[in-house]
Amino acid sequence: MVHSAGAVAEQVKEFNATCDILGADVYPIRYPNVNNPSELKQVSVVGDVTQKMMKLAEAKKPVWLTLQIAWSGVIPPRHTLRFPTFPEERFMTYQAIINGARGIVYFGGHWPESLAEEDARLGWNWRFWRRVLRPVVEEIGNKSPLAPALVAAESKMPVTVEGGEGIEWCVREAGDEVFILACKREGETVQVKFRGLPQKIREGTVLFEEPRKVKAEGGSFTDWFGPLEVHVYRFRN
Asked: Are 192 and 161 in contact (CB under 8 A)?
């Protein structure tokens, strides 16, 4: 059951009994319009909506988020066409996962008014797939080095973050590896410190940014985050 991003939990909670999976669709990428709700203008609203759906689910059902390729609010002639960029799509995907989503759906590849000529013949936005969506899906697909962490339970490892506002993160353990997925909301570029890793960990890989690594000491490490930036860390425990 897919609720609107603006759904009020108290009003829709009674429908939980009718579904196996619940979630919401949230499409924040568009040009300003007087009809846009102010609370949906920032990309990081995806995290807010995910948190709201997690609370609604009460840990009894999985939550899936439906994210944007295109939607009615960017379709001509009433609106100006706009698609998420790769950094925006990647941020929305990871922010949803970090906040508890266990499934992601991407909506809007079918809108005829959004298709280039070659894609119109095929009925789907393959240009967007090649340029933006495929690299994101490859990071969270079953052949990704991150795949074992994405299906693992939330870790109880007491990782905390110091030094910057707007950082969101989750910790997953898979086999002898520890993964930290972290992102930053809008705002300033900040340097932050993660604490709470096992003391014996000395180094971690930043997945999808190879060959970049982070050095750990005493169970902590530091790194930089720009607005809407995502880092995925993998440590051997």
From this structure: yes
56 φ/ψ angles, rounded to the nearest 5 degrees: -65, -35
CA distance 237 to 105: 32
Q: Which helix (H) or strand (E) holds 223?
A: strand 220-225
Domains and CATH numbers, the chain: 2-140 (3.20.20.70), 148-236 (2.60.40.1180)
Beta carbons within 10 angstroms of residue 91's beta carbon: 25
Contact 23, 46 (CB under 8 A): no
Proportion of the chain above pLDDT 90, given as a percent: 89
Give the single-character DSSP code of 123.
T
pLDDT at 37: 53
Q: Which two tokens stand for residue 224?
A: 């930089």
Note the Cα 47 to chain centre separation in Å: 8
| Terminal C-alpha separation, the chain | 38
Spatial distance between the Cα atoms of 55 and 23, rounded to a whole number of angstroms: 11
User: 1-10, 50-59, 183-192: lowest mean pLDDT where?
Assistant: 1-10
What's the pTM?
Answer: 0.95
Residue 194 near residue 184, CB atoms below 8 Å: no
Confidence of residue 36 (pLDDT cuts 50, 70, 90): low
pLDDT class of 213 with cuts at 50, 70, 90 = very high
